[in-house]
C-alpha cells in the first residue's frame, strides 16, 4: 500500500511538475511533533494543497540512515539534531540545502543573516533552539536578592544552597568559563588551550563540595522540587514544563545559556525532493517558526521571528520570556560548538570523569 | 572358555555393537540440545565475539585512505612525512570527499589522537582545490597536518587491526616516536575506576551476605506458612521495577528526604548538618545492596532448607558450644549457597550501571557507566575495549574462585 502511495505520488509529481500531492515528514512525536503539525504541516497544506503526512520516530536520524543505506527512502523531510545532521551530511546521507535559496525574513533581511550566527550548516535548516540553562527555586531566595547571572551559580557564599550540575563535560565547562568572566565569543578558543581547560575545572572545583550531579533531563526539576538543590543546570523545556504546567516557583537564568538546535533535513533519494525543499523553505520562514514557538518553549532560530511570537497557545500569557532566543535572553548566550565537541567529547569527558572521582 | 570376544546374537563383537549404540544415543542427545546450542551461539557467543572484535578492529580509516596506507607500508615508523606522503594524503582526502568517508576516517583517527576528527572533515571539504606542492597546500589549509603526532596516529589507524582502543582503556597514549606512555594524571580514569568497581562490588557482596544470612536462616527454619509470608516480602521488591526501587531510595535518603527529616525532627541531627546518604558512594552501596539482596537470599535459602537440624543437635549433645556448632557444623554446610550467592551478586554488581548513574553522584560511579557513555556516543570500539577488560577481570576472578572454592561447590537451588 505504501509503495502504491509512493508510486502514485511520484506519478502525480510527473503530471504536475511543481508539487507532489503528498509528502512525508518525520518528527520526534509528542508535544514536539504536535507543535510542528500546527505550525508547519497544516499551513503548508492550506497554502499549496500538498498533504503533509506526519510520521514519528524516537530519533529520526536512525531510520533515515537505515532507509538511505537500504536505498528505500520513504521520508521526504526529517527533523534531526544538529550533531546527527552534520554526521549524516558527512556520510552523504542527506542532501545539501543552499541557505541562500531560503526566503528572506519578514523584515527583509536575507536568510543567511536572519538565522542566528552559527546555526546554519551545509545540510540542515534549523527549526528550533533549545538550551542548557541555570534555574533556581525563587522561594529559596529573598525578594530582590535572587541570583541573576551565571557567576551567581558559582557563588555559594552569596547564594547559599546546593547546586545541581550535569554529570558531563558538555555545557558544564562552557558555563564554568563564562562564570569566570570569559566572554561567550572566546569560550571555545579558551577551552582549546590547556590553561583554559584548567581554568574551567578550577571554577568547577569551587562548587564541587556543594554539587549534586544529575544524569537524566528529568532530574533537575525534581531536585529543585525536592529542595535538594537551590540552583541547578537543566534543559529549558523541562524547567518550563515544571514551572508553567506544574506551577512550581522555578525561574530560569538566561545569562550564560548554552544553546543547541535541531532542524529539517532532506534524505538523499527522497521521493518528492522538490516539494520537500518547498516545505523546508516554508516551514523555516519567519511566521511558521514563530508560530511553532507558541506551542513549545523552544526558540525560533530566525531573529525576525522573535517579535512575531505571541501568547502561549490557548492562554493569554506571552511565550517570549520563556524562549532561549528572545533578545532579552540572548544578551550573553553561547552557541554550542559542534566541531569542538565532535573532536573532544571523549577526551574531555574522560577528564571530567577523572575530576569527578578525584577527592 | 576360549579367548573369543563376546558377540551379540547376530555375531557382531559386543564391544563394537555397544559403541555403535552409544554413538547413536549421543547423536540423538546432541540433536536434542542442538536447538539450545544454536540459540546460545547465535544470541550470545556471536554478538559477544563481534563486540570484542570491535575492540581490536576498525577499518574506518584504512578503507578510506588507500594511498596513505601504501605510503606507511613503504616507509618505516619514524620516517618524517615527505612530499609523497602529503600527495598521498591529498589524494585520500579527495577520495574521502568523493565517497563521503571523511567523517568515518576522522572518527577513527580521533580515537588515537583526540581533536583530529574535524581536521579530516574540514580538509576533505576543500580537497578538490588542493594543488602541488601538497605539503605547502595542506599546511596552509591547517597547520596541524605538520604535527608528527597526527602522522603517528594516522600510521596507527592505517591498519584495521589495532591495540589503540585498549591503550585508551588503560589510560595510555601514543608518543610521537611510536612508543606509549601514560596519559597526564588529570585524565587517568579507567584503571582507577576499574579498581573501584571491583572493590565496591566486593563491599556490596559482603554486605549482602551479612544481611541475607540471618534472613535465609529464618526463612529455612520457620514453619511453612510463616516462611511463605516472609518469602513474599523478600520477593516483592524483586518483582518491582528497578527504576521505581532506585527512585524510592532517592526519596528516602536525600538531604530533604524521609530519613533525614525524621532524624532532624528527633533532634538527632542538626538541620544544617543533614546526612549526605545519596548521590555518592554511600548511596550506590545502599541502593545496590538492596537491589541485589534477593540474589543472595534465594541460593542461601535453598541450601539451608536441606540442612538437617539433627546435625546441629548432635553437635550440641556432644558438648559443642553454640558458636562452635555454627562454625564447624552449620556454616560449612551453607558454603555452596554462600558461594553461589556471592558469585551471582558480585558479577551482577560489577556490570551494574543504571543505579550508580542515578544515585552515584561524583564518586559512586562504576566502570559500566563509562561503557554506557561510550556506547551512547557511538564510540563502540572504546566501549568494546572497556567491556573486554571487564569480561577479562570477571573471568580471572572466576578462575581464582574455582581454585579457591571450587565451582562444583556451587549450588543455585
What brief labels describe this structure?
heterodimer; A: 359 residues; alpha/beta; D-Maltodextrin-Binding Protein, domain 2; 2 domains; 9-stranded mixed beta sheet; globular; B: 413 residues; mainly alpha; MetI-like fold; 18 helices; 2 strands; flat
Strand content of chain A: 15-25%
Which range does the strand content of chain B fall in?
A: under 5%
Let me know the largest β-sheet of chain A: 9 strands, mixed
Terminus-to-terminus distance of chain A: 62 Å
Please tell me how large the radius of gyration of chain A is.
22 Å
Number of domains of chain A: 2
Q: What's the quaternary structure here? A: heterodimer
What is the number of beta strands of chain A?
Answer: 9
CATH class division of the largest domain in chain A? Alpha Beta
How would you summarize the topology of this molecule?
The complex is a heterodimer of chains A (359) and B (413).
Chain A: H1 2-15, E1 22-27, H2 30-48, E2 51-56, H3 61-70, E3 77-81, H4 82-90, H5 111-114, E4 125-137, H6 150-153, E5 163-166, H7 172-179, H8 187-192, H9 194-208, E6 211-214, H10 219-225, E7 231-235, H11 236-245, E8 250-265, H12 273-283, H13 286-293, E9 333-335, H14 338-357
Parallel strand pairs in A: 1-2, 1-3, 5-6, 5-7, 8-9
Antiparallel strand pairs in A: 3-8, 4-7, 4-8
Chain B: H1 14-54, H2 66-74, H3 83-99, H4 102-112, H5 117-125, H6 134-141, H7 148-157, H8 164-169, E1 172-174, E2 180-182, H9 190-221, H10 224-239, H11 242-253, H12 258-265, H13 281-304, H14 309-317, H15 322-350, H16 354-359, H17 367-376, H18 380-404
Antiparallel strand pairs in B: 1-2
Helix pairs in contact in B: 1-18, 2-3, 3-5, 4-5, 4-7, 9-10, 9-13, 9-15, 13-15, 14-15, 17-18
Amino acid at each position: 500500500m505504501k509503495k502504491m502511495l509512493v508510486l502514485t505520488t511520484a506519478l502525480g509529481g510527473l503530471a504536475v511538475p511543481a508539487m507532489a500531492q503528498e509528502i512525508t515528514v518525520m518528527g520526534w512525536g509528542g508535544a514536539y511533533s504536535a507543535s510542528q503539525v500546527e505550525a508547519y504541516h497544516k499551513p503548508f497544506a492550506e497554502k499549496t494543497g500538498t498533504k503533509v503526512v506526519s510520521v514519528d520516530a524516537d530519533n529520526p536520524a536512525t531510520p533515515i540512515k537505515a532507509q538511505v543505506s537500504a536505498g528505500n527512502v520513504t521520508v521526504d523531510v526529517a527533523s534531526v539534531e544538529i550533531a546527527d545532521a552534520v554526521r549524516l551530511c558527512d556520510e552523504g546521507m542527506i542532501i545539501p540545502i543552499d541557505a541562500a535559496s531560503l526566503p528572506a525574513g519578514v523584515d527583509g533581511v536575507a536568510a543567511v543573516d536572519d538565522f542566528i550566527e552559527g546555526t546554519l550548516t551545509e545540510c540542515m535548516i534549523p527549526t528550533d533552539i533549545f538550551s542548557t540553562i541555570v534555574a533556581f527555586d525563587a522561594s529559596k531566595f529573598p525578594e530582590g536578592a535572587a541570583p541573576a547571572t551565571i557567576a551567581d551559580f558559582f557563588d555559594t557564599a552569596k547564594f547559599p544552597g546546593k547546586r545541581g550540575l550535569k554529570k558531563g563535560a558538555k555545557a558544564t565547562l562552557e558555563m564554568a568559563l563564562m562564570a569566570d568572566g570569559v566572554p561567550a565569543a572566546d569560550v571555545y578558543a579558551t577551552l582549546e588551550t590547556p590553561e583554559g581547560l584548567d581554568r574551567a575545572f578550577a571554577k568547577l572545583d569551587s562548587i564541587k563540595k556543594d554539587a549534586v550531579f544529575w544524569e537524566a533531563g528529568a532530574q533537575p526539576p525534581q531536585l529543585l522540587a525536592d529542595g535538594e538543590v537551590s540552583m541547578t543546570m537543566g534543559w529549558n523545556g523541562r524547567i518550563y514544563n515544571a514551572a508553567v504546567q506544574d506551577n512550581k516557583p522555578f525561574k530560569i537564568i538566561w545569562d550564560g545559556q548554552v544553546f543547541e538546535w535541531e532542524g529539517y533535513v532532506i534524505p538523499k533519494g527522497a521521493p518528492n525532493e522538490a516539494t520537500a525543499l518547498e516545505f523546508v523553505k516554508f516551514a523555516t520562514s519567519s511566521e511558521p517558526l514563530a508560530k511553532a514557538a507558541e506551542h513549545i518553549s523552544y526558540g525560533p532560530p530566525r531573529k525576525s521571528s522573535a517579535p512575531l511570537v505571541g501568547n502561549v497557545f490557548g492562554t493569554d500569557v506571552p511565550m517570549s520570556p520563556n524562549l532561549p532566543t528572545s533578545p532579552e535572553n540572548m544578551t550573553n548566550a553561547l552557541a554550542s560548538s559542534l566541531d569542538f565537541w565532535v573532536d573532544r567529547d571523549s577526551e574531555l569527558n574522560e577528564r571530567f570523569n577523572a575530576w569527578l572521582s578525584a577527592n | 572358555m576360549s579367548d573369543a570376544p563376546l558377540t551379540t546374537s547376530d555375531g557382531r563383537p559386543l564391544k563394537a555393537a555397544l559403541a555403535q549404540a552409544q554413538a547413536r544415543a549421543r547423536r540423538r542427545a546432541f540433536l536434542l540440545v542442538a536447538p539450545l546450542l544454536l540459540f546460545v551461539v547465535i544470541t550470545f557467543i556471536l554478538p559477544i565475539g563481534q563486540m570484542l572484535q570491535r575492540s581490536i578492529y576498525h577499518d574506518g580509516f584504512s578503507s578510506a585512505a588507500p594511498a596513505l596506507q601504501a605510503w606507511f607500508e613503504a616507509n618505516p615508523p619514524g620516517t618524517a612525512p615527505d612530499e609523497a606522503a602529503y600527495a598521498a594524503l591529498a589524494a585520500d582526502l579527495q577520495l574521502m570527499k568523493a565517497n563521503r568517508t571523511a567523517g568515518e576516517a576522522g572518527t577513527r583517527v580521533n580515537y588515537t589522537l583526540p581533536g583530529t576528527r574535524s581536521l579530516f572533515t574540514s580538509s576533505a571539504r576543500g580537497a578538490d582545490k588542493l594543488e602541488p606542492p601538497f605539503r605547502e597546500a595542506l599546511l596552509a589549509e591547517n597547520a596541524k597536518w605538520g604535527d608528527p603526532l597526527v602522522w603517528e596516529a594516522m600510521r596507527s589507524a592505517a591498519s584495521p587491526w589495532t591495540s589503540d582502543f585498549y591503550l585508551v582503556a588503560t589510560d595510555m597514549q601514543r608518543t610521537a616516536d611510536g612508543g606509549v606512555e601514560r596519559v597526564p594524571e588529570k585524565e587517568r580514569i579507567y584503571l582507577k575506576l576499574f579498581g573501584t568497581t571491583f572493590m565496591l562490588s566486593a563491599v556490596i557482596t559482603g554486605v549482602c551476605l551479612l544481611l541475607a544470612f540471618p534472613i535465609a536462616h529464618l526463612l529455612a527454619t520457620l514453619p511453612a506458612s510463616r516462611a511463605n509470608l516472609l518469602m513474599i516480602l523478600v520477593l516483592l521488591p524483586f518483582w518491582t521495577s528497578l527504576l521505581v526501587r532506585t527512585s524510592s531510595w532517592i526519596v528516602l535518603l536525600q538531604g530533604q528526604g524521609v530519613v533525614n527529616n525524621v532524624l532532624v525532627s528527633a533532634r538527632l541531627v542538626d538541620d544544617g548538618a543533614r546526612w549526605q546518604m545519596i548521590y555518592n558512594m554511600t548511596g550506590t552501596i545502599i541502593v545496590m545492596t538492596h537491589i541485589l539482596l534477593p540474589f543472595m537470599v534465594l541460593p542461601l535459602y535453598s541450601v539451608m532448607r536441606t540442612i538437617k537440624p539433627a546435625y546441629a543437635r548432635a553437635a550440641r549433645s556432644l558438648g559443642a558450644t553454640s558458636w562452635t556448632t555454627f562454625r564447624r557444623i552449620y556454616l560449612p554446610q551453607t558454603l555452596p549457597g554462600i558461594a553461589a550467592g556471592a558469585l551471582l551478586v558480585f558479577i551482577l554488581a560489577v556490570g551494574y550501571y543504571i543505579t550508580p548513574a542515578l544515585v552515584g553522584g561524583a564518586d559512586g560511579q562504576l566502570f559500566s557507566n563509562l561503557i554506557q557513555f561510550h556506547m551512547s556516543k557511538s564510540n563502540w570500539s572504546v566501549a568494546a575495549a572497556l567491556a573486554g577488560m571487564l569480561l577479562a577481570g570477571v573471568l580471572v576472578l572466576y578462575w581464582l574462585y574455582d581454585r579457591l572454592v571450587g565451582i562444583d561447590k556451587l549450588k543455585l537451588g
